[in-house]
Amino acid sequence: MAELSKLKDVIARHGLSANKALGQNFLLDSNLLAKIVRCAGDIKSETVYEVGPGPGGLTRAILDAGVKKLVAVEYDVRAVEALAELVAHDARLNVLHGDALKLDEQALVGKSCHIIANLPYNIGTALLVRWLSNERPWPSWWQSLTLMFQKEVAERIIAKPDTKHYGRLAILAQWRAEPRITMHVPASAFSPAPKVNSAVVHIVPREPLVDIPVKTLETITAAAFGQRRKMLRTSLKSATRDVPALLDYAGIDGNRRAETLSVKEFCTLAEGLTKVCVD
Ligand code: SAM
Fold first, then answer.
1. Minimum-distance ligand 1 atom for the alpha carbon of 121
2. Ligand 1: distance of its center to the CA of 175 in Å?
3. Nearest-angstrom CA–CA distance, 164 and 135
4. Which CATH superfamily is domain 214-275 in?
C-alpha cells in the first residue's frame, strides 16, 4: 500500500489528536502491526471484523494479510473521515460509524468471521464479555478473537485457579474457549503512550467443558466471587436457597473458597443449579 498517505500524515491532516475518553492510543509501526495480525493465524480469504480502526494502522495490516472482507466500526467521526482514503483504495474495506457496544455484529459480518482489534481500554472488557456470552450456537458467529488489552486484563483472561487474577472473566473465557497471550506490547509502542503495558490475547472457541447455559454459569461465578473471601457454603447463598444440595451435586466441600475451584468445577456447580435447585 505504498501509494497511501503515511499514517502520521493522515492523523495530522484530519486533526486526529488522541481523545482519551475514547481510549485512543494509536499504533503506527507497520512491523508491529503486521506481527499483531499474525497472532490471528491464517486469515487469508477470511472475513474480519475490527473495532476502533482509528487512523487505520491495524486496518492496513489486516488488509495486507489477504482477507476477503474487512468490516470496521469506529465511534469517532474524525477517524471515519480519515479512513475515507483507505476505503477508496480498497473495495474489501467497509467502515461504519457507530458504537461497537450497540451494534448487531452478525447482521454486519455474517456467521463466520475473525475479530481483530486494538480495543479502547474503557470498553475492552465489556466487548469481550459480550462476545463470550453468546448462548447458542457455539462456536459463535466469530471463529477467533485477537485482541489488545491492557496487560492486567489479559492476565485476568488467562488466569489459573489459586492465582490473584483468577475470577469471573477467566471462567467465562476458559469454559468453552482457549485463550492465550500471544504477544506483549510495551506502553512506548503507542502514540500517545498509555500508563500501562498491553498484551495481545488470542482466543479460539472449543467444546464446552459442560453443556450449560452461560447465564447459569454467570449466576454461580457472580455469587462465588461476589464474596471472594467467604467460604462457598456462605457465598453461594445469593445463587440458591439450597446450597447444601448444590455442593453435594458437584462434590465440592463448602469450606473451600471461590479461587480454589477449577473452571470445570464451576461448570458442574452451574449444571447443579439447573438440576437440583428449585429456586
Ligand atoms: N486501531 C487503531 C490503532 O491500533 O492504532 C486505534 C486503536 S485505539 C486503542 C481505539 C479506537 O477505538 C479509537 O479509534 C476509538 O475512537 C475507537 N472507539 C472507542 N470507543 C468505541 C466504540 N464504542 N465503538 C467503536 N469504536 C470505538
1. 9
2. 28
3. 28
4. rRNA adenine dimethylase, C-terminal domain (1.10.8.100)
Q: Where are the domains of the chain?
A: 7-205, 214-275
Beta bridge partners of 202: 146, 180
Q: Do the domains 7-205 and 214-275 sit in the same CATH topology, yes or no?
A: no
Name residue, grid cell 466441600.
253
Q: Which of 8, 20, 39, 76 to mutate to test the pocket of ligand 1 (most atoms within 8 A of CB)?
A: 76
Give the distance (Å) from ligand 1 centre to CA of residue 97.
Answer: 11
User: Which of 75, 97, 128, 131 should be mutated for ligand 1, with most atoms under 8 A from CB?
Assistant: 75
**Strands 177-185 and 190-191, sheet pairing:** unpaired
- Give me ligand 1 centre to Cα 3, in Å: 25
- Which of the following CATH numbers is that of domain 7-205: 3.30.460.10, 3.40.390.10, 3.30.1360.70, 3.40.50.150? 3.40.50.150
Q: Return the ligand 1 atom nearest residue 120 CA.
A: 10
What is the tens place of the pLDDT at every residue in 158-200?
999 999 999 999 999 999 999 999 999 999 999 999 999 999 9
Identify the residue whose C-alpha is closest to ligand 1 atom 17. Answer: 52
**Claim: this prediction has a pTM higher than 0.90:** yes
Summarised one tens digit per residue, pLDDT across range 110-152 is 889 999 999 999 999 999 999 999 888 899 999 999 999 999 9
178, 190 in Cβ contact below 8 A? no
